[in-house]
Write a structure and sequence with these properties.
The protein is an alpha+beta fold. The chain is 39% helix and 14% strand.
Amino acid sequence: MKALLRLAALCCGLLLATAAEAGSGSYEAKLPPELSDSPRLCDYAPCRDVLPGADSFSERQGKPPFVEGYHTVNGRRERVGFVFLSTDIVDIPAYSGKPVVTLIGMDNAGRYTGSKILKHSEPILLLGIPEGELTRFTRQYLGHHVTDKLEIGKGSDAGNAGLDGITGATVTVISQNQVMMKSAMNVARQVGIVKSKPKPAARFLDPADKPDWARLAEEGAVQHLTVSRKQVGLPDDARPYLDLWFGYLNQPTVGRAVLGDSAWQSLMARLQPGEHALFIVNDGSESFKGSGYVRGGIYDRIQVQQDLDSYTFRDLDYLNLYDIAARGAPAFHESGIFIVRHAPNFSAAYPWQLVFLGNKIDQQTAQKTFAAFEREYWLPARYLQGGRPHVERPDPTWLKVWKEKRWQIAGFVAFLLTVSLTYALRDKLVRRSSRKDKRWVSIPKYTAWAISVGFVGFGAMAQPSVTQVLTWVHALVGEWRWELFLSDPLIFIFWWFILITVLLWGRGLFCGWLCPFGSLTEGLYKIVAATPLKRFQRKPNARLHARLKWLKYGVFLGLLGVSLYSMTLAEQLAEVEPFKTTFLVGVLHRSWPFVLFWTLIVGVSLFVERPFCKYLCPLGASLAIPSRFRLFGLKRKAECGPCAACAVGCGALAIDDKGRIDQKECLLCLDCMVMYYDDHACPPLAQERKRRTKAGQALTPIGKDGYFIPITPLPAEPKPARPQPKKETA
């Protein structure tokens, strides 16, 4: 056993060394701060790689920014295309919750000429799927026009071109597809490659009522955008970073309610045909005006967007706003009226977004990244003639994934419900079983193992991991984003199932019945037990087990502590879980330290039952802690203290010498519950059975308390009274 522990330590060391080297690519790469804010983008980014033929580049221009690339011929420069940084344009998070920083090239005709991943934070591309797979994915855009409909998977009958995805990284590629298409389309519209289609102008209704602020907010005529300090990487505070209220003023009812009759009429008189006015008030700790306003009269922090058209504001587009007429209006310290000019494609009948553009500070690296916070505005139907027009909205990324996997989700939910129902009916199963015939328990459990390994593990690659626990912990104390967790539907469903069942029955239903890796290793152990190799199988002695079982808690707490310092390092160290090697990447696709570590764990699992689950698994440790608060535990008898029959047969070594079950370690194999009702295996029952048989007494059924139902003599029924003869009367 000591030699085994030394070998495990050696393999762990090799594993961590490989993990440390894995960060040498674009994963969490340290980019120069000038990449985000320098006018000379191409001095800090490999622009020539994504725009072949260009030998010089302009400074950043446009809003959002891009650069022009030129080719010099006979001393004359000719523009050959454009280069832009994805994070200058869009803020679309991938599976990690952070964007993939991508440099993109586009020619004068609007065709993709190249792309390069500069930085990503996807843990699956850290030590699992090679980073080259994401590069290969983005190369598929080369030659396509920005107006081409590109979707993951096979092309549809509607003419959509299909892109090959990355197995096991669905969320990442869907996010990256949006990054590539939205970034390129935005620039293409700015430079005139793609022309916007004008929308029908809004026709307003003017209801007779004059709503107060509460009514305006309830119906959506004014909208609220709040940005907390945490969202921009600053220490949290009771007062938000930004606390904006805004609305559209051209609509008569809304305009008069906000400004008052005379102020609204004065504003409308100043507007030219086709111009639109909106108001913004702010009571946050920071200003929405931005530093650019001070330098050159540019409000560089706010934009109005409709579809892919963006509108910015200068000092001439600003009017003072001193007061709000609506009753119940909130307090504010900053305000203004902004005019959207030269916007032939803007229509107030359709939804638009107010966007606050800011910098988010990474607390670990102190680097600033682009962040966009937006809120949609759409006039209520009662203010528009004919109501709101029909608008087809694209599905969010997470919803696309759910729709694509709907049949897989349905099968997975059915599987989880079936296992839950089976375990809920465990009393009926164990009563029908005996120590020599456990098929009523074994068949459902072994079936669950097979489905878990084949369908959940290798098929759907939905093995839960401690990295998700760490992500949840950080989300609880930081910024919670539902779309991040919804992006992987099977994992999302699995975790809700795990949380509910842990509080009901403890960790055992997941760890003992449904964990793909645990099911695989125990299944292999059972197979070996049916062969002559069974004689080599061993159980650790009680003293060694009592010490080693705490190791997994140390591993989990260590990972949690490291994650507070660096989530990247914690994700690397989480490779102590062999789950990725087993299901997601495959043993044959990993470097030799990972293969050696995996071989050691699986090899030992052939002869020791679930050694990883008992002693190393940080995921199991994280679930064992809340298992202390479960609602239902396994049954025990008064005689279980001095009796060691169940403890001898407990594969999880979860029963101590006093007969107590450690629910943190119990994997709910139900062997002890089979013995609980077995009158040939449970010593108290066996003794009672023998006593009754010897005394010639009947064997009554075994009750829920695990004892024979007592024989209670029934009282003798009283004899019926004889009828008295009737006396004759004269």
